[in-house]
Amino acid sequence: MRIHLPCLGRSLPRAGVAVAALVLSLLSPASAGADTSPAPPGASAGAHHISAPPAPTEYLGGSRMVSPSVVCASAHMQTIGWQQASCAGVGSVATVGLPGQGLRMEALSLSVVGSSFCATAYLELRGWDTDWTCAGDYGALVVGSTGQGLRLEAVGFGVQTGRICGNAYVQDVGWQGWYCGDNGETNFAGTTGQGKRIEALSFFVA
Length: 206
Prior knowledge:
By secondary structure, the protein is mostly beta strands. It contains one helix and 16 strands.
């Protein structure tokens, strides 16, 4: 399912990877790191058919209206808490979580340089968040929950301009494959109604 995000236009100055990492690190106790593994060649756009709340019609934020250049993510994991952030520029992948270790991801923190963006989460016992959480260029957001022992089962995500792709490592499934959204489209990774935890997430921007 794809949903278009609102168009935004407030300009912000460019500061690069360090700023995105710093913003995201404020939401987690660990400092930001880098994941330099290459983005999969020819990753194609796809979409899960998951019902979710409609994307917001407006929100306060800003975008320079160019393609995103950096994505940073951090995961709150069962028994561990917030992990060190992972940041990736164009051509590399940011991966967070612990694939194959049987631990549930409980919350996701996300930051993007170069575009406004939004995310939403599907949580154990709760289902979809009633509202999308959005942030402007260089901003950061958090979806999911902490300290409640609830597994994150699916996430929705989208950038206002350019492309963002996500891939979830799901309990009993493994890596699902890349799902991408372009210029305001939103896509989803994970499962709903199956009681399966997300153990890791990967993102790249283009």
